[in-house]
Batch of 3 targets.
Target 1
Amino acid sequence: MTRALNKMSAAFVKSAPTGKHSDGGGLWLHRRSDGGAQWVLRVTVHGRRREMGLGSLSDTPLKQARMEAEKWRALARDGTDPIKEREKQRRQKARNLHMLGDVARDCFDARKAELKGDGTAGRWFSPLELHVLPRLGKVPVAEIDQIDIRDTLKPIWHDKAATARKAMERLSVCLQHGAALGLDVDLQAPAKARALLGAQRHKVTHIPFLPWQEVPAFYASLDQDTVTNLALRLLILTIGTRSRPLRYLRADQTLGDIWIVPADEMKGKRGTGADFRVPLSRQAMGVIDKARAHEKDGFLFPSVRKGVISDATMSRLMERRGMEARPHGFRSSFRTWCSEAAEAPWEIAEECLAHSTGGKVERSYKRTDFLEQRRELMQRWADFVDG
């Protein structure tokens, strides 16, 4: 038999005496002795009676209480516990309220192990921090769509193309992280935003480099044994290491004519566990011996104040001389020399530069770093550079 519904009037609810009053269908108004009142719904699920609060009378008028009661009664009729379902919905809502800023920082923390120096340099996170989070950081990730992303990156999409691409890529990783946390995220939003933004007009410019024929003259000009000059000379002679591992070179990393660079310091080898062995030419060992006179806190190229010389120190030396070329460009100088003058095998030249060669499967079977062949080639390069 159907139970009578809507027994109470709005006037009665307003002046109801202390006690419990039924509106039918399991909906009750409980008026307390202190004057306050609250709604309670009683339902039976799988033979078990359940009571759930529907809010206070001051916040929930009679009409709204009846609508809420019918919604939860319908679930109970289908065999769903309304109390558990409401708690589930609350948890889902709480998850969806995670702000992009929180998710991005959690994502960054999770990825630090695979980033150089645990990401302390900030280069992975900075595109987000500078160009995305100021506008979207306090927006729930569940609400971020392609329009939000387009409007955020549009000001830099063409003028700062490389930075905009990095920001888009980082944002996509953060959204994937949010999805892994169980958040309701639109993983296609970055791709759709990219389609809305269109192709970038920015033209890629490569780092200027010194023609290999001019390297010996420049190397000879670094005749004073200052920290910066010695660092530049060693960078030219050990071309595969890039700036960071060279600047952080410690005396205990060299053993005879081998410099062992930790994998975490090598671009492309982080996370592989494989250190990079650099064969040292006679000239390179001579530079290292001279650098030992400047050793401080274990570092061969220390800064005047604290730590090591900065990433820009060597660049500024070349800039002050009016040169367009930059330190990183010596890798191009060497690679061109390998092709045009040394006629070095392609794979050996690439290994000297610590480049990954071949496909993933091919690399998994590769069990050599061509140390002896590289030792011979690097000595030829050093002899050429040294004149």
Note: The first strand starts at residue 19 and ends at 24.
Target 2
Amino acid sequence: MWNKRHALFWIALFLFLPAFLSGCGGNGQLHKVKVGEVTRSVFYAPQYVALEKGFFEEEGLEVELQTTAGGDKTMTALLSGAIDVALVGAETSIYVYQQGAEDPVINFAQLTQTDGTFLVSREQMDNFDWSQLHGAVFLGQRKGGMPQMAGEFSLRKHGIDPHRDLELIQNIDFANIAAAYASGTGQFVQLFEPQASIFEREGKGHVIASFGMESGRLPYTVYMTKQSYMNKNDEVVQKLTHAIHKAQIWVQEHSPAETASVISPFFKDTDLDVLESSVKRYLEQGSYAESPEITEEAWNNLLDVMEGAGELKVRASVDELAENKYAKFAIKSDPSP
């Protein structure tokens, strides 16, 4: 029989059920974030782990990932609002700063902390010495991009002027460099994984040195966004950083084979053994950042690399173009996958 007690129950249920469902995620509503990655690469394994393991969803985020091939295109997409967050080299934020942008681009979480390219030779060179590059035809990367600048930094470290001591080829688009080398262009080439491992397996090239090992710690690939977006979406940026840090921990605590298996949906044309070899190589040289925080030492090394390449006009400090509060909070929270 209907009575006052029943009436109060249904009123309370009507008032509080929506809030309860919302708090439990019952409505399935996630905050969408459009992220543009500069390229698709095993170098970004933690990002794909975060996607596949649901770490973004755990933070209430729906990440819409798109590959915006090339640093210039990625930054253009960010500045125009086509994407909310960019995963690209930290040097791009410095270029925007140097142009006097009113709405600067701020780095907030690093994903990789070394250069990710390897020196590949057509012939096996067991006793390789950098002096052997003198006079060689070298298929390099795009001028002003981090791979090329880190490569030049490494070459100068070994007494080689890349523009005088080499026949340097830089007129080939990033996406076509591997194909150009495979077709016979150049004696040496600078390649990311998994292409380096693929070439080794196919007998098209041999990894003889690591530019990541030579150029030191760098905020090489970083999540960044416009200051205006960060101001309006502080909680979103924090949640994104949390998810990335969870993935960083996961990759460090699992085997290359496990990581390769998880990220394989993003590399459907690449065999698992090649993915495993690539992840193993990056782990061994410490390329995957264990922390999203951008250190002053690594930032200053980046400035030195850019200065050596003649691309730096202003030495902007890490405090000007990096916001580490998100990384520090994520680290303090010590999220466990």
Note: The radius of gyration is 23 Å.
Target 3
Amino acid sequence: MNTDIPLPGLEVYRSSQLEPEDFLQFWASTVADSRTHDVDVVLERVDTGLETVDVYDVTFSGFGGHRIRGWLRIPAGANEPLPAVVEFAGYGGGRGHAIENLFWASSGFAHLHMDSRGQGSGWSLGATPDPVGSGPHAPGMWTQGIESPESYYYRRLYTDGVRAVDAARTLPAIDPRRVSVVGVSQGGGAAIAVGALAPEVQAVVALVPGPSDFPRSLALNDRYPWREVTDYLAVHRGSVAQVERTLAYFDAVNFARHATAPARFSVGLMDPVVLPSSVFGAYNAYTAPKGIAVWPYNGHEGGGPDDLLQARRFLLAL
């Protein structure tokens, strides 16, 4: 069944999320600090046995200079700089196996699939630890360091994403003018954030993106991972204002308000994990050219392979 307000209401919906006064300053300082570390990209060829795609184990410097891993997949035999896709994983997942996720390289793109620090044991493999600890938190990543924007987990993850774009743009196999960011769910939210923080990004593909529109989602969505936050606040009753302030720095709605790259979104109207209104909260706030695929009978899978095919057409048309 539909999980939110009808489509005509979604098309005009506006999130109540407010932007912190120092939002841009906070993120400019964060990104600048990360760039004081040499991105120091290291590639190691992986013998996968594949004949049409070459795969490299990648490491580069992310937030705090921490070493972040990923896979670089390139069409075999490519002899000129390629358009590139930097992909961010969904919640609980990592970069996966070297021979997974071959769609983008098989479509003629260089594909840098970034690992998510501290994740990668839920449904796909990860290989990057998060060396930063946090205070008490609910199980999962959503409340790690949530009492402060400076300590919050997603500050590190989104900064890693910016540095992944920086890393991709240094590689001879990639055309630095044609680097786009892509993600599903958590990865879609990361793509919106990185697209706003890295003006070098050519385009953004945000499929069923979250986390977005925290004010509405936390009030109406009892599904995890949103419930990680409500579980935390059910115990830390005096921290509501501080947590709400922290989350405002990481809401896709606020990043969307500073978008400069063209974007392709998608939404499933039967999605119980990321409410359609939260997707439209970010989409309707998005200030650059945009389009959205609406899947009326789909949930959090969105359009699945049809989303990917539409995304490929969108990027090839740029």
Note: The first helix runs from residue 7 to 12.
